Amino acid sequence: MSKTVLLVDSLGATARRLEPLFRRELTLVAEPAPAALALELVKKHNPALVVIDLAGPAAELLKLVERIMADKPRPIALIVESPTERKVAFGLLDAGALEIIQLPATLDAPTTATLRKQLLLLASVAVVRHPRGRKRRTSASIPAVKPDFTVVAVAASLGGPRALATLLADLPRGLRAPFVICQHITPGFSDDLAHWLHAETGHRVHEATDGQRLVKGEFFIAPAGLHMLVQPSGVLRLDDGAAVGGFKPSCDLLLRSVAQNFGARAIGVVLTGMGRDGARGLKEIRAAGGHTIAQDEASSVVFGMPGEAVAIGAAERVLPLDDVGDQLVRWLQ
Fold first, then answer.
1. Chain segment 169-183, per-residue pLDDT in tens
2. Core-most of 10, 136, 266, 308, by most CB within 10 Å?
């Protein structure tokens, strides 16, 4: 049965560009209307997925997402076409939107197939509410890492930004480990993600740079379009090599580097996401004597990556998202 996708597009231009994405499995409903009136369209058509073009006023878009999630909760994807729309997009993630989609200037056949698959997956997921954890602030100082430190590596994909915000907000300041994060995200958005996570949680979050030294209690995100590896000295290396399993950055490569260089002093976490990336890297951390966690199915937007980690025996613990932070704190104390 075809799934209905409602496009909120005040000008109607985006609908024309997206038409090639909609075939048998997906039916597009696009009635040009301002965001202020779009909730009535949600009630009228009861779509499996709402896709919002961000050309409208930011305040109206925010109210729309908040009202949909309060009155008619369902997956919401955001169409971003310019750098100026990125800040608005992350604000809407905070309000409950699920995913940001960068719409390229032209839609060739491979891009069309990828976007169609992404929309179909988004239209199939149940909305999971992840209440944001409390911001815990301590006065602990954060020293530079030494050769005997622990590294926590986190992998995430679809639904990851909101899951990361929840996880980081549940972690206290001054933890005795740096965190390295691989989040599948559109090129150009990883720096925005770092700034958004800092604003949401109060932690120091960076888009990683080549040669950067890890610091305990801080968080380092792999730049979109580059692989990130951790050297034994605690220095990050960025690599522009080929995509691994279709992903760049690759979660498996990051987790594998942590397993190989830190062994029992490594901790790996695989959060919500589609596909299998990160599962094998998590298994390598466990085989090397490190601790591992996979997010459970009930709290995952998509149980692909964590589900694969569970299936291959990579996960020492399978936990709801709200319990992951507490477990990490226990291991790091």
1. 999 999 999 999 999
2. 266
Q: How far apart are CA 210 and CA 208, in angstroms?
A: 7
Q: What is the pTM of this model?
A: 0.86
Find out whether 277 and 158 touch, Cβ atoms under 8 Å: no
Options 9, 10, 130, 184, the catalytic residue:
184
* Partners of 207 in beta bridges: 221
Is pLDDT above 70 for 11? Answer: no
Active site residue 184: yes
pLDDT tens string 275-288:
999 999 999 999 99
* Active-site residue identified among 277, 291, 296, 300: 277
Three-state DSSP at 81 gives coil
Distance between CA atoms of 177 and 142, rounded to whole angstroms?
A: 9
Q: Are 201 and 94 in contact (CB under 8 A)?
A: no
Amino acid at 213: R
- Domains of the chain (ranges; CATH) run 3-124 (3.40.50.2300), 151-332 (3.40.50.180)
Per the annotation, the verdict on 157 as an active-site residue is yes
Q: Which of 1-15, 23-37, 299-313 has the highest mean pLDDT?
A: 299-313
With a cut of 50, say whether residue 98 has pLDDT above it: yes
Round to whole Å and give the CA distance between 309 and 292. 10
Contact predicate 182/156, CB 8 Å = yes
Provide the β-strand partners of residue 153. 180, 268
Q: Is 208 helix (H, G, I), strand (E, B) or coil?
A: coil
